[in-house]
Amino acid sequence: MTEGPLSGLRILELGHFVAAPFATRLLGDLGAEIIKIEPPAGDPVRQWGARHNGHAPWWSVHARNKRCIALDLKRPEARDIVLGLVRHCDALVENFRPGQLEKLGLGAAALKVARPDLVIARVSGYGQDGPYRDRAAFGVIGEAIGGLRHLTDHPPGTTDLPPVRVGVSLGDSVAGIYAALGVVAALWRRDRRQGPPGPGAEVDVALTESVFSLLEGALPEYGTLGTVRQPAGGGIATAAPTNAYRARDGIWVLIAANSEPLFRRLATLMQQPGLLEDPRFAGNQARVAHVAELDARIGAWAAGFDGATLEGMLAEADIPSTRAFTVADCADDPQFRARAMVREVEDPLHGTVLHPGMVPRIDGAVPPPRSTGPVIGADTDAVLGELLGLPPERLAALAADGVLRRGG
């Protein structure tokens, strides 16, 4: 496959930080043409994380497969440029606070005048309506209100430290996935008809709701039983044994032996047949009820081996297990490498840089990125010249007036 399944679609991104840009990255990976509009100072993510050659390596991935132009959206001339671009786009993805685009003259009504069948995906903290609509929010707030931060902790009473963050912008990324799914669904509805295209759509994605949707059976359990799911640390509250156990050299190894056949294999591997005869561990419910004693037994056994040895033993016994990977482990992993989930990419700003592969893989295709995250305004001239026919002298005048920024 030389072109992605979304090849032929053009999507405009009015995004910043993580959620909307992540959504368009996914769509771009699948072949869509992405035109990203950022302010003349650049998307804030350009400044996040470590620096290499004066640039954030994250940007190489975050803005890959995107044509980046820089506009000051507070200027009327920039608004007119955006509306001109909308006429050539199938969808628009944004993650401003509700009402902000309307203040800029780029609300849904104005966008639909420019292109009536436009699909507009709007990502915000709480959604486009409701009593919390106007509150400020980032991904961490979505994770907290969505119930996840309460669960990413050790069991109650075991520590006074605050509930830990997952370690990445999970709330933003999940919202971005839902936004990308919503765009594809709305475009399918619009374009599947015979004859003229159907109407456009507004896709409303809230960070809080995106996280909340991940909580499995927590809500129906509360609604029927009145139980509030509590954090379980490294384990699973409903199945045992499943936890991380520290090997002799300090490596944490996760062991998931929570079915009867797997538990028998583990007991055999541990050379502790008494575990199978102990009524405290007879069946999953009993093991969950006595999980502290069981984890202590497994932990004491695991501590007698180095991590690599322990991993090998567990793999040989066909027990689901692995060390807790660092990013270095991921980068060197033969499975990730074999499936091009970790690949070397040439980036003009960094030289050779590692990129994560595309998810999902379709028809086995593993295409490399068409481009990496560019400098600010790298594509301003090309995009506005191709789509709007703006000549170089007009672009130069707009740049001199501060309406846009050209690359270089």
Automatic annotation (TrEMBL):
<dbReference type="InterPro" id="IPR044855">
    <property type="entry name" value="CoA-Trfase_III_dom3_sf"/>
</dbReference>
<keyword id="KW-0808">Transferase</keyword>
<protein>
    <submittedName>
        <fullName>CoA transferase</fullName>
    </submittedName>
</protein>
<dbReference type="InterPro" id="IPR050483">
    <property type="entry name" value="CoA-transferase_III_domain"/>
</dbReference>
<dbReference type="InterPro" id="IPR023606">
    <property type="entry name" value="CoA-Trfase_III_dom_1_sf"/>
</dbReference>
<dbReference type="GO" id="GO:0016740">
    <property type="term" value="F:transferase activity"/>
</dbReference>
<dbReference type="InterPro" id="IPR003673">
    <property type="entry name" value="CoA-Trfase_fam_III"/>
</dbReference>
<dbReference type="Pfam" id="PF02515">
    <property type="entry name" value="CoA_transf_3"/>
</dbReference>
